[in-house]
Design goal:
Number of helices of chain A: 15
Strand content of chain A: 15-25%
Protein name (chain B): Hydrogenase expression/formation protein HypE
Strand content of chain B: 15-25%
CATH architecture of the largest domain in chain A: 3-Layer(aba) Sandwich
Shape of chain A: globular
Family (chain A): Belongs to the HypD family.
Pfam family, one (chain B): AIRS_C
Protein name (chain A): Hydrogenase maturation factor
Largest sheet of chain B: 7 strands, mixed
CATH architecture of the domain at 171-334 in chain B: Alpha-Beta Complex
Number of strands of chain A: 11
CATH superfamily of the domain at 171-334 in chain B: PurM-like C-terminal domain
Number of domains of chain A: 2
CATH superfamily of the largest domain in chain A: HypD, alpha/beta domain 2
Shape of chain B: globular
Order of helices and strands of chain B: HEEEEHEHEEEHHEHEHEHEEE
Structural class of chain A: alpha/beta
Helix content of chain B: 25-40%
Oligomer: heterodimer
Number of helices of chain B: 8
CATH topology of the domain at 171-334 in chain B: Phosphoribosyl-aminoimidazole Synthetase, Chain A, domain 2
CATH class of the largest domain in chain A: Alpha Beta
Order of helices and strands of chain A: HEHEHHEHEHEHEHEHHEHEHEEHHH
Family (chain B): Belongs to the HypE family.
């Protein structure tokens, strides 16, 4: 397949792995921010072909994983409201709130629909004028333009029955929070290529400078990821603390001007709660007052935090890259994709789910893997 | 940053007392439903070793018996419709038992208001499919339900076949050293249905691989291929089928990812939707477990039958119940069963 095959070519992967091995003289810990990258690393076993000195740890960049309980519970409540059509991206449906998940609401009669684009939800609102249609607008800067477009379109058309439940987050503040934590292990970052495609790379320079570490903008195919790792290792070995763009085929330093303008038209920066990271200032997006009419929280009441019950789940530590899924006593035992104790086991981009699906149980650190 | 100990996830309330869609998705939840609720409720004089159908003896003749219900949306899709699916699906389940399909029943649950023209089209397509496999639809039933109480049309077929394979064809017959042959490329049916259902416009349209499988299986039997196990790769795809066989047979399987054919347009659709082609449904593909000495001949015979068959792996003597897949870059990973259906990813 043109434009994909070359980024999966086995010879290129092998030569990049060689180059990384040659460039590495000491141990380095590199975090890939994005859950899509975590998934690809595990799917293709890229961590297994790196020299043992390189440790990849997995960041909080799974949009499903970092959405806080309060919003999952609010989604469940709205979805169970008679007359509502609740629209969501597919992998949100299995995420547990404190009272079940959206699939459960659907099984009990709620009208929960998977959409592939927020504009599909707008279309559902258009064709069901007597029903309230709510879209669960979650994600990073990657989903923000399309979610903004949904609100923009609804406003332009005066679609009074459409609203968004917004839990939209931003990557750079999360990176700063991770690096500010006393237990941080991160020495270099692979930044998420899709996020930078939208927002550009300008926000990362000050972070690289303040925390003295390289940040490499990286894509999602095996060749992209290894090229990112190679650039990061070389920078670390040479003591360079720069922002490097290894995803130049889509990422421009200014980002996508049209997408940024649309985000700015619809959203404003606000404080947000992240699962695993807590409440971070200026780390998310909320609808501007000019779009308040399309805010599901204004229509159905605000999302409220519910005190979490005690749990053996360490997804907080996993989302911060402090622990590996293999270090969790519940992993593969009481916590499996059928019975997830936490979100990182639910989404295919979550580190625990990726480990469960792809990790050979017989290798590594003597962890006993309980197979159902 | 707050103390992360306070930020852990709540224990999820696991929904087990109502049926969810995932219970029908071909993954672990479906297996658990079958084991804990359905199979355990019935006494069975002949323990069922072949998951695609029951095999029993009547008057000295070994017969295979199977049934399947078809609930597909949309009813008509590129490459087939619910009628061809209902006949081919049951024909294929019998073929996977090494049995020649003979007679089928057909039951229709029709929603009030369903267009007569569409029903005629479905029935005509069933007759065409039946002829193609040399089977007869000999008995049936129709029920009409109130508008709103059915999704247009549901079809159930059951089938009886005569076992032609000379040795047992089931996971229990799988042996270390057997070669796993895949009859063709993966994922066409699942992607065709998803594209039609969700109105996804891809540049090239993918047609379902829906097709009858008795003829190619017959060719293998007649050539004297010792078929240890056959499995059609429907819901849950190749991965779920192999995991089921590995678990039932308590054997270990190793397959090569680079040997598995997937059409570029199917792969592109999978990449776009965040799906893994190994788990996407097929309706005209099967995996055959044959002795290594007959692997090349099997590939050749299936090729002669018009199928792009390839050897994709082997049964090893390793720990039972596992399927390992060697990736393109030298790393090996384990295949696991999905909980329910694959859900498209966010980004």
């Amino acid at each position: 397949m043109k434009h994909v095959d070359e980024y999966r070519a086995a010879e290129t992967v092998a030569s990049l792995a060689d180059a990384i091995a040659r460039a590495t003289t000491q141990p380095w810990i590199i975090m890939e921010i994005c859950g899509g990258q975590t998934h690809a690393i595990m799917r293709y076993g890229l961590d297994q072909i790196l020299p043992k000195e390189i440790t990849l740890i997995h960041g909080p960049g799974c949009p499903v994983c970092v959405t806080p309980d309060a919003y999952i519970d609010k989604a469940l409540e709205i979805a169970a409201t008679p007359g509502v059509i609740f629209c969501s991206f597919g992998d949100m449906l299995r995420v547990p709130g404190s009272q079940g998940d959206l699939l459960g609401v659907k099984a009990r009669g709620g009208d929960v629909r998977i959409v592939y684009s927020p504009l599909d939800a707008v279309e559902i609102a258009r064709s069901n004028p007597s029903r309230e249609v709510v879209f669960f607008a979650i994600g990073f800067e990657t989903t923000a333009p399309a979610n903004a477009m949904a609100a923009y379109t609804a406003k332009r058309e005066g679609l009074c029955n459409f609203s968004l439940l917004v839990s939209q987050v931003l990557v750079p503040p999360a990176m700063e929070a991770l690096l500010s934590a006393p237990d941080t292990r991160v020495q270099g970052f692979l930044a998420a290529g899709h996020v930078c495609t939208v927002m550009g790379t300008e926000a990362y320079g000050p972070i690289a400078m303040r925390f003295d570490l390289p940040i490499v903008v990286t894509g999602f195919e095996p060749v992209d990821i290894l090229a990112g790792v190679l650039a990061c290792v070389r920078a670390l070995e040479e003591g360079l603390h720069d922002v490097l763009n290894m995803y130049g085929r889509t990422v421009k330093s200014q980002g996508n001007a049209a997408a940024r303008a649309l985000i700015d038209e619809v959203f404003e920066v606000t404080e947000r709660e992240w699962r695993g990271l807590g409440v971070l200032p200026a780390s998310g997006l909320a609808l501007r007052s000019t779009y308040a009419a399309f805010d599901a929280e204004a229509r159905f009441g605000p999302a409220r935090d519910i005190r979490a019950a005690p749990s053996p789940c360490i997804s907080g530590e996993i989302l911060r890259g402090v622990c590996s899924p293999l270090e969790c006593a519940a992993f593969g035992a009481s916590c499996t994709p059928d019975h997830p104790l936490g979100v990182t086991m639910v989404s295919s981009e979550g580190a625990c789910a990726a480990y469960y699906r792809y990790r050979d149980p017989t290798d590594e650190v003597g962890v006993v893997f309980v197979h159902e | 940053m707050n103390d992360s100990k306070d930020l852990n996830c709540p224990v999820a309330a696991i929904e087990t007392e109502v049926i969810q869609l995932a219970h029908g998705g071909g993954g672990r939840l479906m297996h658990s439903l079958l084991e804990t609720v359905i199979l355990s409720a019935f006494e069975n004089p002949a323990p069922n070793e072949c998951h695609d159908g029951a095999i029993f003896e009547v008057g000295g003749e070994r017969l295979a018996f199977t049934t399947d219900s078809y609930v597909v949306k949309p009813l008509f899709f590129p490459g087939g419709d619910i009628g061809s699916l209902a006949v081919n699906g049951t024909v294929n389940d019998l073929a996977m038992c090494g049995a020649q399909p003979l007679y089928l029943s057909a039951a229709f649950i029709i929603e009030e208001g369903f267009p007569m023209a569409e029903l005629r089209q479905v029935v005509a397509s069933m007759e065409t499919a039946a002829r193609q496999s040399g089977v007869y639809l000999v008995t049936g039933d129709t029920k009409v339900v109130d508008r709103g109480n059915g999704d247009g049309l549901f079809v159930n077929t059951a089938g009886i076949g005569a076992v032609r394979a000379r040795t047992p064809v089931n996971p229990g017959a799988v042996e270390a050293g057997d070669v796993i042959i895949l009859s063709g490329d993966l994922g066409r049916h699942g992607i065709a249905i998803m594209a039609a259902r969700e109105h996804l416009a891809f540049e090239t349209s993918v047609a379902s691989d829906c097709a009858p499988l008795w003829e190619p299986v017959k060719a293998l039997i007649e050539a004297g291929i010792e078929l240890h196990c056959l499995r059609d790769l429907t819901r849950g795809g190749l991965a779920s089928a192999l995991i089921e066989i590995a678990e039932t047979a308590a054997c270990a399987l190793t397959i090569e990812e680079t040997a598995i054919p997937v059409l570029p347009e199917v792969q592109a659709a999978c990449d776009l939707l965040g799906l893994d082609a190994l788990y996407v449904a097929n309706e005209g593909r099967f995996a055959a477990f044959v002795p290594a000495a007959q692997a090349a001949q099997t590939v050749e015979l299936l090729g002669a039958a018009g199928l792009g068959a390839v050897a994709i792996g082997q049964v090893t003597s390793g720990a039972g119940g596992t399927v390992a897949i060697a990736g393109p870059y030298g790393a090996t990973r384990r295949l696991t069963m999905f909980s329910g259906e694959q859900l498209p990813r966010i980004c």
